[in-house]
Specification:
Number of helices: 8
Structural class: alpha+beta
Helix content: 40-55%
Strand order of the largest sheet: 1-2
Strand content: 5-15%
Largest sheet: 2 strands, antiparallel
Length: 224
């Protein structure tokens, strides 16, 4: 019985496998920004749906970030969220939109409605086209020649409620549920693309590894 080993072929294959492995890591590094960008986009969509759900559950807390009488409706959101990829992470930046709807009894939209109520900014109301200011308070009409200052237009439950929901999403829901439910966590734990590309990497080396690594990390996302 004889065993014949082709030393040159074995050495070449081993070198290519090592180069393939290093190329795979290079590809992951190159595709990281694309992965984070995709993750950012998908996270924003889930975040918005999360806030919609929270608003429908407790309308008293989050009514200010929606158009009047449309709490929890995606089409009536007065907030938006952008993301920025920075180094090894993603930064999420919320902002508020102007309201365009009218509250019952009003003739103009409440300017900066979401921001004012979220931050608990006092509002002073003055008559514009008349010497008398008319408004409804506790179900009764009130007439006055003086300006009226509302110290807390959204109420104590509203102030800071959007920030709280935003923080809760990332502090608890994102890490404990979203990453697993979306499949991202499991996908990153099991880089089967590396194994599948090993045969090609055995002959193609580093260049094949870069391509496989890039595609694997860039395709990591929700809905898999």
């Amino acid at each position: 019985m004889r065993a014949i080993i082709n030393d040159k072929k074995f050495a070449r294959d081993m070198k290519n496998v090592i180069d393939y492995s290093l190329g795979f890591l290079d590809g992951i590094q190159n595709g990281k920004a694309q992965f984070l960008n995709n993750l950012g986009k998908n996270t924003i969509e889930v975040l918005k749906q999360y806030i919609d759900t929270m608003a429908r559950v407790d309308q008293q807390m989050l009514h200010h970030v929606y158009e009047w009488n449309k709490v929890g409706s995606p089409s009536a959101r007065l907030f938006d969220v952008q993301h920025v990829v920075r180094g090894n992470g993603v930064t999420f930046i919320p902002s508020f939109r102007q309201s365009t709807s009218l509250k019952q009894g009003s003739k103009v939209p409440f300017k900066n409605k979401a921001a004012i109520m979220e931050n608990g900014v006092s509002v002073t109301i003055r008559p514009k086209t008349s010497t008398v200011l008319a408004f409804e308070s506790q179900g009764e009409m009130v007439f006055t020649r003086k300006e009226v200052t509302v110290s807390d237009p959204g109420g104590q439950l509203v102030e800071g409620a959007f920030e709280k929901a935003f923080d809760t999403f990332f502090r608890a829901y994102f890490s404990q549920a979203f990453l697993y439910a979306s499949g991202v966590a499991d996908y990153l734990k099991n880089p089967i693309a590396f194994k599948r590309g090993l045969k090609s990497g055995k002959s193609g080396g580093r260049s094949v590894g870069k391509k496989v690594g890039y595609n694997w990390i860039a395709r990591a996302g929700v809905g898999r």
